[in-house]
Amino acid sequence: MDFRTKAHWQAEAEKLKAETRLFIEGEYREAADGGHFEVINPASSAILAEVSRAQEADVNLAVIAARASFEAGAWSQTSPAGRKAVLLKLATLMEQHREELALLETLDTGKPIRHSLRDDIPGAIRCIRWYAEAVDKIYGEIAPTGPDALALVSREAIGVVAAIVPWNFPLLLACWKLGPALAAGNSVILKPSEKSPLSAIRLAALAKEAGLPDGVLNVLPGFGHEAGKALALHDDVDCLTFTGSTGVGRLLMEYAGRSNMKRVWLEAGGKSANIVFADCPDLAKAARASAAGIFYNQGQVCIAGTRLLIEASIKDAFMAELKKAADGFKPMDPLDPSSTMGTLIDSDHHGSVCRYIAEGLKEGALLGLDGRDQAGNFIGPTVLEQVNPHMAVSREEIFGPVLAVTTFEREEDAIALANDSQYGLGAGLWTSDLRRAHRLARQLKAGSVFINNYNDGDMTVPFGGVKQSGNGRDKSLHAFDKFTELKTTWLALD
């Protein structure tokens, strides 16, 4: 893939004129009260844009537009083949604008441009294309009744969907929601994070160009305690899908209960364990995957392998390989195509990650690698060793490039340590013993278990967690379960 040069991306950034308005009923418009908020480039601390700030009045307008479009049926009653054609065109338009979208992601979030180009934008395009191809292959059911009745089970779009997405993978995670929700025939209101709204705002125009009817996709940049809360409390929103912190997820469930008991689907926090046994088939490979599992995207990944559990007998050998692998992650200007590590999302988050590192050292952890000696919002790979399960760095989601290392002696100890968490998003397991792999995969309390890899997968497999990591699943055909209702039609034949 041609990642161009740093000078190229700097020049493109200078020329870029990002759209900054809300998108409601097929058109861009200012917020009802004329309010704005600043979007900051975390790599330079410069103001990227003044973006329209959605409030309750804007939410009400978007919900009215979404409901009207849904009831009118221009999208919800279109054939699956018809929806497929529009979504495939949207994927093609995203492909044609991939460099623009990638640049918006990098400027908004501080992630390396090579990752936006190689991973984020292609992943978003694949998602839209995958659900477009899937929608006309979903069949209903005929229940096994007696000869005196015919019982049909069909899927129907749920109605108005509110999708609230985070800042770490803005467009990719938005598409994880939009793909199945739109393919199923729903109307959607997308609220991107106030820290990274630009790619979602741009996507709205591409969706209109692709042929999505007005009102089917609305985009409301704004703050969670304003626009997000208003969506969650709105009585005419039928479904809320969210990726973000566990704390915010709890609030959204409360708001749904206070309003119309709308469906709430949550992909929340994580503190995933990555377990390496002495019979690991390839220590160097495991070390590289473990490094990527925590340092990729600056550790701002919900399923990051933040807890490394190593069998004591191989600890020294494995840590030597891990530190070599960590050398491949060096914080640099995100617009430099050779950069493999960018910035944290903002100065507040940078301060939070630094406080966690200091707290871990205060509680008795040892510093194996220290990535704090950086300017601005950069933090490099950081490793805390001799971490015990009672420390905050072992229990709380840091959301930064900080690895907590703990050793174990016995298999049962490893499982107990891995499951000793309020979260249950992912887990890794490195072993040559096939029986152990199957046995322990069943025992690990996690939505995904990765054996001799970490966080591999594609659109064909569901993604989500257990315990306080949330409910429901993104990706795969199972995502349709969140955005459709099952209807039984019973015909008496006697």
The stretches of 5 or more residues where confidence is low (pLDDT under 50) are none
Q: What's the multimeric state? A: single chain
Q: C-alpha Rg, in Å?
A: 23 Å
The major sheet is characterized as: 7 strands, mixed
Look up the CATH topology of the largest domain: Aldehyde Dehydrogenase, Chain A, domain 1
Mean pLDDT: 97
Can you tell me the CATH class of the largest domain? Alpha Beta
The number of helical runs is 16
CATH architecture of the largest domain: 3-Layer(aba) Sandwich
Query: Strand pairing plus helix content: what structural class?
Result: alpha/beta
How much of the polypeptide forms β-strand, as a percent range? Answer: 15-25%
Residues in helices, as a percent range: 25-40%
Fourth CATH level, the homologous superfamily of the largest domain: Aldehyde Dehydrogenase, Chain A, domain 1
Counting DSSP E segments of at least 2 residues, the number of strands comes to 21
Query: How many distinct domains?
Result: 2
Q: State the end-to-end distance.
A: 65 Å
What is the general shape?
A: globular
**Biggest sheet, strands in spatial order?**
14-15-16-13-12-18-19
Protein name: Aldehyde dehydrogenase PuuC
InterPro entries: Ald_DH/histidinol_DH (IPR016161), Ald_DH_C (IPR016163), Ald_DH_CS_CYS (IPR016160), Ald_DH_CS_GLU (IPR029510), Ald_DH_N (IPR016162), Aldehyde_DH_dom (IPR015590)
Family: Belongs to the aldehyde dehydrogenase family.
Active site: 267
Task: Explain what this protein looks like in three dimensions.
This protein has 494 residues and is an alpha/beta fold. It folds into two domains: 6-268 and 470-488, 3-Layer(aba) Sandwich (Aldehyde Dehydrogenase, Chain A, domain 1), CATH 3.40.605.10; 273-459, Aldehyde Dehydrogenase, Chain A, domain 2, CATH 3.40.309. It is 40% helix and 20% strand. The chain is built from 16 helices and 21 strands. It has helices spanning 6-15, 56-72, 80-96, 98-109, 113-134, 170-183, 198-210, 224-233, 246-258, 283-295, 315-326, 347-362, 392-395, 411-419, 434-443, 480-483, and strands at residues 22-24, 27-29, 36-40, 47-52, 141-142, 149-157, 160-164, 187-191, 217-219, 239-243, 263-267, 273-276, 307-311, 366-369, 382-385, 402-408, 423-424, 426-430, 448-451, 466-467, 484-492. The strands form six sheets. A seven-stranded mixed sheet has the order 14-15-16-13-12-18-19, sandwiched between helices. The protein has a five-stranded parallel sheet with strand order 9-8-7-10-11, with helices on both faces. It has a three-stranded antiparallel sheet with strand order 5-6-21. Strand 12, helix 10 (283-295) and strand 13 form a beta-alpha-beta unit. The longest helix is centred in the first third of the chain and has 22 residues, at 113-134. The chain starts with 5 loop residues before the first helix and ends with a strand. The active site is at 267.
